[in-house]
Amino acid sequence: MAELKVLLELRTKIKDKKPDFIRQDYHRRKRLGRKVKWRKPKGIHSKIRHHFKGRRKMPSPGYRSPSKVNAFHSAGLVVVRVLSAGDLKKINKETEGIIVAKTIGMKNRLEILRKAKEMGVQVLNLNIDDTIKKIEDFIDSKIKKKPTDIKKEEIKKDAKKVEQSKTEELTDEQKKQAEKKEKDKLLTKKV
Q1: Hey, is 81 helix, strand or coil?
Q2: By mean pLDDT, which of 16-20, 33-37, 78-82, 84-88 is the weakest?
Q3: Does the pLDDT of residue 34 top 80, yes or no?
Q4: How many folded domains does the chain comprise?
Q5: Using H for helix, E for strand and C for coil, what is the string for 6-75?
Q6: What whole-number percentage of the chain has pLDDT above 70?
Q7: Residue 121 sits in the same domain as residue 107
Q8: Are residues 56 and 105 in the same domain?
Q9: Burial class of residue 22, CB neighbours in 10 A (0-12, 13-18, 19+)
Q10: Distance (Å, rounded) from C-alpha 10 to C-alpha 66?
Q11: Among 47, 69, 91, residue at a domain's last position
Q12: Are 161 and 137 members of one domain?
């Protein structure tokens, strides 16, 4: 375990010194675009290929991490990608940490995070408590916005009562006119 910590510290030192490996002449060529991937310089007069002083560095094995810690997160845990709550059963909480996949929806993410918190598994790409709270707040706000079916039925009943009370107050002539208007609406209604 002590050896692992030493190697992780060594990896962070190496990565701090590592330069950005940018393609030769990317700033001169618009077609190379904003996403600049490394390509090895092939030209016979290339200053970078010849490793001239003051030029950009090329990738080399010296910048590589120690091979024993390649699969490890900076927290010293092996990274395991989780897609469902069932995947948590296979996790060893002392040596492995989980990363919740980006493509998972809110409900499944909430379920995974609750189960991980219950099991004591470390989540490496999220803060468990904050994320659970955000998702629950979002779900609660969605539920409050939607009127339930019971409320809809109550509104319809209230509307019918109001219409009935209006029709009772009307005189006979007004009732006949209202019925005539309703018939006209039905006859002129487009199909």
Answers
A1: strand
A2: 33-37
A3: no
A4: 3
A5: HHHHHHHHHHHHCCCCCCCCCCCCHHHCCCCCCCCCCCCCCCCCCCCCCCCCCCCHHHCCCHHHCCECCC
A6: 91
A7: yes
A8: no
A9: middle
A10: 8
A11: 69
A12: no
Same domain, 103 and 46: no
Judge contact between 119 and 112, C-beta under 8 A: no
Amino acid found at 160: K
Whether 90 and 118 map to the same domain: the answer is yes
Q: What is the pLDDT of residues 76-125, one digit of tens each?
A: 899 999 999 999 999 998 999 999 999 999 999 999 999 999 999 999 99
Question: Whole-angstrom Cα distance, residue 154 to residue 53?
Answer: 81
The verdict on 165 and 139 lying in the same domain is: no
- Categorise residue 121: left if φ over 0, alpha if ψ from -120 to 50, beta otherwise: beta
Q: From 69, 95, 110, give the residue that closes a domain.
A: 69
The tens digit of pLDDT for each residue in 46-63 reads 999 999 999 999 999 989
Residues 64-71, mean pLDDT to the nearest whole number: 90
Structural domain including 165 reads 150-188
148 pLDDT band, cuts 50/70/90, is low
Domain match, 140 and 154 both? no
Question: Of 70, 62, 61, 64, which is closest to residue 8 (Cα–Cα)?
Answer: 70
**Eight-state DSSP code of residue 97:** E
